[in-house]
Specification:
Length: about 70
């Protein structure tokens, strides 16, 4: 098995605040966003996936799109 890049997954209550916090850092950007989650990238560093827990009613990140809801497995 080869690991190409590590990633950290976080459950966050406020997607907008989390996205704004992480993208405020130099070289960090949102690489993927949809309703309930976003992936943040910084070259040469660990990627981060922020996920809104099921049933949470806080605001979505402004860049999120309208895609099918995330399912819990």
């Amino acid at each position: 098995m080869h690991i190409f890049s590590p990633a950290v997954s976080l459950n966050v209550a406020d997607m907008a605040a989390s996205g704004n916090f992480f993208t405020a850092h130099p070289d960090s950007y949102e690489s993927v966003a949809a309703t309930g989650f976003m992936a943040l990238t910084r070259p040469g560093s660990t990627d981060m996936v922020a996920r809104q827990p099921p049933g949470s009613t806080t605001a979505q990140h402004p860049g999120s799109t309208s895609m099918s809801p995330q399912r819990s497995f």
